[in-house]
Amino acid sequence: NTNAVNGANMGDVMNNQNKMKSVYKKSTSSLTARRDAFAGIGCISALANNALSAFRTCTLGRDRK
């Protein structure tokens, strides 16, 4: 079921976003780590904003295999 697969992917995206926020909070003592965490959050946010097209691409790629 494709919808079940997409639901699982969305769950992974949300879990990763929460992890990155946690990493960002813990890394405030290091400027480099803070910058890296912020870049990660930006990347995940971009993915979330384009979730539909991203999941379409992932699903189509998976179905082709």
Describe this structure in words.
This protein is an all-alpha fold. It has one domain. It is 89% helix and 0% strand. It has 3 helices and no strands. It has helices at residues 2-26, 31-49, 51-64. Helix 1 (2-26) runs antiparallel to helix 2 (31-49). The longest helix is centred in the first third of the chain and has 25 residues, at 2-26. It is elongated, with a radius of gyration of 14 Å.
Helix and strand arrangement:
Elements: H1 2-26, H2 31-49, H3 51-64
Helix pairs in contact: 1-2
Put the structure in a nutshell.
The protein has 65 residues and is mainly alpha-helical. Helix content is 89%, strand content 0%.
Give the rounded overall mean pLDDT. 65
Tell me the helix content.
over 70%
Query: What fraction strand?
Result: under 5%
Would you report the number of β strands? 0
User: Distance N terminus to C terminus?
Assistant: 16 Å
Q: What is the chain-wise order of helices and strands?
A: HHH
General form: elongated
**Number of domain units:** 1
Task: Provide the gyration radius in Å.
Answer: 14 Å
| Structural class label | mainly alpha
Low-confidence stretches: none
Largest sheet: none
Helical segment tally?
Answer: 3
